[in-house]
Amino acid sequence: MITINEDLCKGCNLCKEFCPLKVYEESKIPNKKGIHVPCPKNENKCTKCGLCILMCPDQAIAVDDKDED
Amino acid sequence: MDKTNQNRFMKYLRTDRLPNIFCPGCGNGIVMNAFFNGMERAEIDFDNLALVSGIGCSSRVPGYIKCDSLHTTHGRPIAFATGLKLANPELDVVVFTGDGDAAAIGGNHLIHGARRNIDLTVICINNSIYGMTGGQISPTSPTGSYGSTAPFGAVEKPFDLSELTKAAGATYVSRWTTAHPVQLANAIKAGLQNKGFSFIEAVSQCPTYFGRKNKMKTAVSMMQWMKAESITKRRAEKMDVTDLKDKLIVGEFQNKNEAEFTEQICKLIGDKCTTGKPSSIKSAFKED
Fold first, then answer.
1. Number of cross-chain residue pairs from A and B with Cβ atoms under 8 Å apart
2. Which of B1, B29, B32 sits opposite A3 (nearest CB)?
3. Element (H or E) spanning B190, and its range?
4. ipTM, 2 dp
């Protein structure tokens, strides 16, 4: 499961750009800070490579790999 | 947000200081992630780590990391780190510095640290501009790039920090960009494991100043530019010099073994000390 911490995300969209499988999409509605936080639309494509965790400059992304056993 | 699904690097961060002060898309956070990843894989004890930084955007990184850190005067992190390492040789000392910090005001400390081959890991976040003070041209700004002190383009030639430290005698030198986070983490891992002066140049993006003044307004466009312009060292060796103009050569520049400074000093003190075995600062607090 991919979780994006809205308090930490600054909307730089690096995760959306650098995800090799294009899991993320920009959200249409801004949050309370006015930031378009990306949403993991195509989460079923995610292979949990962890590149978005390395790429996120604000440590906002968490990918949980425990839910699928 | 529940604690079960947290970013995996959150355990190393001072969470009360977050969100960090860096601009959206700043490369400092990516270097921080790569450092944690490299540190985990190098099996460095987090409690035995000391971070030293100077002044600048990049030097704010240790302020967010939950370990012992020194925020020192401008350009002097390597000088402070040298003292720290000599006082307690068991510590793993890592220096976070920027291009203005390491190449401009602290240029001498950098080359003398490399000359001595003291066991430090210097991570230089090179964003080619002075980001904190308003976008002035720095010693690593490429020729022709724009800044607030170069409205018609920089005239002077930039410093090649990796070649400089290699020539000065560093035993591990590597350069990667923030668009290569996995390779950067590998370089940091190798630098932490290397016994001697390790210099890792992380070419980073500054969308707020460098990007805005050089027609790359977003972090995404800056990182795509860095990715397109970078050529690995192995490929660059086969290419013509004229083709390599304005290109960014990335890769491992130096990896060798040489005598380390602190070991030599400790051995010398042990040999010459007439009043028994010398003790480190840390043991002064223990009752023997």
1. 85
2. B1
3. helix B181-193
4. 0.92
